[in-house]
Design goal:
This protein has 128 residues and is α+β, with helices and mostly antiparallel strands. Strand 3 and strand 4 form a beta hairpin. The longest helix is centred in the N-terminal third of the chain and has 18 residues.
């Protein structure tokens, strides 16, 4: 009897999971916004293709997915600044160069958090 109940419960769980479509894409790096309460989740789903993603202070909000394909990580040319500059943002806004737009690189800032910054130029070898 227990085995029968277990099989029925397992079938219901599998059926329920099969009916919840998985949205494509992934969340961006933790969002540095002042939304510290859950604005979405299992009880409050996001509309359309938006995903429910974490905010820096422990909340959640609906945002557009970063990518709908497999993520390819790559390193952009240039070096991170030797002496970090920019605002004192103490929350990570990127995890790799791939998260940053245009030619910006993901570098540690004055606070130690990873943020998108303008790289220092790459020294070129002197011509012979």
């Amino acid at each position: 009897m227990r085995r029968f109940v277990f099989v029925i419960v397992l079938a219901l769980v599998a059926l329920t999971c099969a009916q919840i479509p998985r949205k494509k894409g992934s969340c961006p790096p933790t969002l540095p916004v002042d939304i510290c309460e859950p604005a979405c989740g299992p009880e409050i789903p996001c509309e359309g293709e938006q995903l429910c993603c974490a905010t820096a202070c422990g909340g959640s909000m609906c945002v557009d997915a970063v990518t709908a394909r497999h993520f390819v990580d790559y390193v952009k040319p240039g070096n991170c600044p030797e002496f970090p500059r920019g605002p004192w943002v103490c929350t990570h806004t990127c995890t790799s160069d791939s998260d940053c737009p245009r030619k910006l690189k993901c570098c540690a800032n004055r606070c130690g958090a990873l943020t998108c910054q303008r790289p220092e130029s790459v020294p070129t070898a002197p011509a012979e």
